[in-house]
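Final report, closing paragraph on structural work. Over the funding period we assembled a curated collection of sequence-structure pairs, and we close with a single example.
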Amino acid sequence: METVQNRKQGVAVCVEILVSAIFFVGGFAFVYRNFGFHAASVLSLILALPLAAAVRLCSRWPAVRGREFAFLGILFCAAGGGSIFVVRAMYTDGLDQRYAEDLRWAEFERRLRRDPSFCDVQVHLSELKNIHWASGEFDSEADLARLYSLATDCGIKERRLDGPFVHSVTLTVRRQPGK
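Its predicted structure, as stored:
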């Protein structure tokens, strides 16, 4: 009788470890896709706690009490609820949109670096407000039009290329000698 119960508890611990590992990987993948690696790694710390506790129980297997299974279940529920609360707060704060904006500007900067006519154009990020803008000079009005087209292709609105200050003009065309 005791051996059958121990087997059932052993299967229960294995199932809890498997479920925890699935939630850990699935949660990491979901958060990484929407919020980036940093947010996913922080959230994985919340989800790793019940996984570590379940592995610890499995290593002490025959000497595990029923009360420890109850605590493990509570820990699973608390970690799951906590991670849902954190992800919901991240959506409320707009971190998913900020991450998408960072990706658009990173793609824009990669494309700028590939084109030699934009070698003097830099992409900036303000420290406090998380505002991106481009500054620099290029040779012709056609380059300016190509820059706006490139920004539009990357999902950046044309007016967002200017700096955060209304009085500053950050993208200029060089004066040609003799004009």
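Helices lie at 2-35, 37-59, 66-92, 95-114, 141-153. The first strand starts at residue 122 and ends at 125. We thank the funder for supporting this effort.
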